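It is worth pausing here to work through a concrete case rather than discussing structure prediction in the abstract. The textbook approach is simple: state the sequence, then state the predicted structure, then interpret. We follow exactly that order.
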Amino acid sequence: MKLITKLHIRYCLLSCLCTLSLGLFGQHQFKGTVIDAETKETLPFVNIGIVNKGVGTVSKFDGKFYLEINKVNFSNNDILQFSSVGYKTVQFKISEVNFNNLLFQKVVMQPQAMQLHEAIVSAKYLKGKKDDVIGFSYPSKNKFGYWKGDGSLGAELVTRISVDKKKHFLKDFHFYLNENYSDSVLVRINVYKGGTIYPEDKLLKKSVTKMIGKSPGMVTVDLKPYNLIVDEDFSIGLELLEVYGKRVGLVLAADYRPSTSYRRYVSQGQWKTFRGDAMTFYVNTSTLSEDDISQISEYARHKTLQNSFNTPQININPVQTHRSITGFVFNNGKPVENATVQIAESLKHTQTDAYGRYTIMAQIGDVISFDYLGFEKVERTVLETIHNINVTMNVMVEELEGVTVTERARLKKTEAEMFSEYLTNDEFAKTTFGTIDKKTSAHAITILRGEDLNLAGANILDAIDGKVPGLSVRWESYREKYVFIRSFSSINNNRKAIFEVDGIIFEEVPYFLDVAAIDRVAVIPGLAAATRYGQVAAGGIVAIRTKAAVYSRNQSAENMDQSKIRNNVYEFDAIDKEQANKNLPSYLQALLACNKFEAAKKVYEENEKLYSSSVYFFLDAYIYFTANWKQEKFSNDIISNHQSLFENNINEMKALAYAYQRVGEFEKANKLYTSVFVKRPNYAQSYRDMANSYVEVNEVQKAANLYSRYTKLLNDSFLVADTIGLHPVITTEFNHFLQHKTDYNISSEDLKEVAAMREGADTRLLFEWNDDEAEFDLQFVNPENRYFVSNTSLNNQNEYFGKQEYSSSKEFFLESDIQGEWIVNINYKGNKSGLPTYFKVTSFSGYGTDNEESITRIYRLSFKNVNQNLFYLPTLGVDRLN
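Step two, the predicted structure:
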């Protein structure tokens, strides 16, 4: 940085005071990472350099640094110093430094004890106080200060500001940007005590940074949260931390009035004094009296005594003003392109560019989330002091250990509660798949009341035009208009939205609707819509409820038996087990025909060599022998002697885990599920299977970790809830886990809701299959000989239920008010591999009560496209084979 007059040719004839000749660098490189001794986290922007020798740098966002030194230019006693606010300074003699170009070394810094009883200046102490401006606020046309060329990290330009003997609370720091030739420049604001020859002792005990863009004009940095009170001269200035772009060319305004400025070329470099020159640096302040200071100190002392374990919180003015937030997103020091930057609970979002840079408008108090596939999601809150937010994203690492259990969130309202509150709650929206509560939805859903629409519009498109952030109407092929919803998952979503009107799906715009007849409109983005409606709604859905539908009879409240509306009388056309067994492999048919263990053992031994490479032969044999003969050692040897066949085969390991669970070998099953989890860490099914297995082996804490981790990834949209299949299973089992496996006290309201979810149901059926690409239909026949799906327990689906992608679990609760025997059938459609699918069915009676009982069966599915019987089930829940 330098100050110049207009007599010089502008910028070009200036000697560059903040760059060093490359000739100073050379043979020796010292590189490494600076880390916190206690937290082990990396430390950004640590000042690094040889004291007063003009060689230095600062650490990057990830704590890494690179410092080139020509040892010939320095003595062994010269000091290489690491310094940072809040940490003890670390020094090495040059003779002690290991200059190894290949070795990436760690420099550990110890946190420095900070004063805990600091005075907190809140907004109430500033009301009515005299405001004053101190410093230099007039930009001269004849003087400038700048960084030019490569720019040396850690270089500083500081101006001394005179203060009278009154107490001044520093509010806002201002400086003027004339030009910026770089993409962006990151600087740190430093405030030093006066009374010394050069700036030494920092008043500002926190690292306050500011991203400077290309737009010229005044730049403001909020200092209020840092509680700086001065009554004597001090110095304030900027330190260069990072340059984004190929070069730096940052030109700042200087003041025509004389003062004293200081600059140094590089981190840890020697200060140089410029007398008679001042940068245009000034500070808005409030003048405080001695009584004010006394009250503030007494308040701080009182709060400290009141809660000695909590650091006093900064009381920030809660005025909700919009501001432009800028910054960069990095991973390992490299920019992350196309990361999604979004205002939480809003459709407002953007993406980072090739440099990892973004800009987004936000309000104080907003939470900004940074999201990129495969990385841990990061969230930052916009405070009054914040204008730029830079984040480092870490690659997502799925671990079975170390997940902190968080307090369970309040369960959502039941469908019945939402229905009863619908007319008085504007944040509820009705869809064909139930009522949505905007508050508890994991996605950004916009809900409009009928009176909020453009009522003068000729159609639904005119009615919602301009009412929904991210929604646009575009022409397709110059003939038809379509709606596009810019969703969270993709800023360039090119799939058109569909419509639902009173439960009926329309892929075209419903122009026939009378705008005045609309009661409520819910605009659901693609990710949320697809989980409810399937891929047809991948572009999002506009769910509309008319006034006629809302105020008609309470259809949801009625317990309608849909089986009586359709012609669905069961004709007993499913084949029985004996017929299905005729399609089993010959070795299985031979085993099933044996009446004694020795005969079955002989059949096994005769086929062992023939099928020595078939994992399915040994899996089938193990299931058969454990189900029919109490020969534990023999059965275990079948697997242990052929263990290698199961390794790395996910589907086969899951099938074997089913077999282990059926006979109570839960520890063995747990090892298999662990292997599957490691291979499939991004599947929601893996979390469910692993958590359930931990419950079975009584590893309560690990089970809680997995449930907590699943919930976090779901909320962060790294996992998608399969609301038709897997997610209800996890919800049911998590509630069961909390009630029966932990000391967590569930509130009476939560217990009531859990009971309401299973009202009228005594029996739970849990279906699991080892191949998530298997396809099948399930058919339920009630004791009145009608096949159907219950509205209350089976989520409004049709008679048959296909599998959901990446999920291989599904549950049903059977109604108990119809006494008699149920029939459960399956129509297996096959899988992509053509190999058999193993189907585990667990029936629970008295589920969730002290009298809970369960029976587990395993079925080998290979006979395709035929409706076959699985089992009969009394409403008491004790199943029997046919």
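Step three, interpretation. The longest strand covers residues 167-180. The chain has a mean pLDDT of 76.
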